[in-house]
C-alpha cells in the first residue's frame, strides 16, 4: 500500500460531503469533504505500488480540464483504471454539489 498527497488551487467548496464507489477488486472509493480553503487537498491510498507519477499526471490533467472545488478528497484505490477513477471523482463532486 502506498499513500500520496497532492494539493491543487481550488475554487469555492461544494455544499456538502459525499462519497462514491466502493473499495473492491478493480474499483475505487472517493470521499469529498468541503473546507473553507483555497485548495483541494487530495490523499490517495492505493494498492498499486509505484503509481505516484500516474496519479500526479491524472490530477494534473483533471485540474486542467475542470475547476476543482476547495476541500479534501480522499481516494482509496484497489487498482482502478483511469476511466473508473475519473468516473468516481466526477460522481463524488456531482453528489457534493447537489447535497443539501
Automatic annotation (TrEMBL):
Pfam families recorded: ACP (PF06857)
Range of residues in the leader sequence: none
Cellular compartments annotated: Cytoplasm
Modification after translation (UniProt): Covalently binds the prosthetic group of malonate decarboxylase.
Phosphoprotein as UniProt keyword: yes
Alphabetical UniProt keywords: Cytoplasm, Phosphoprotein
Domain of life: Bacteria
List of residues that carry O-(phosphoribosyl dephospho-coenzyme A)serine: 25
Function: Subunit of malonate decarboxylase, it is an acyl carrier protein to which acetyl and malonyl thioester residues are bound via a 2'-(5''-phosphoribosyl)-3'-dephospho-CoA prosthetic group and turn over during the catalytic mechanism.
HAMAP family for the chain: Malonate_deCO2ase_dsu (MF_00710)
Membership in a protein family: Belongs to the MdcC family.
Name this polypeptide is given: Malonate decarboxylase acyl carrier protein
Protein species of origin: Rahnella laticis
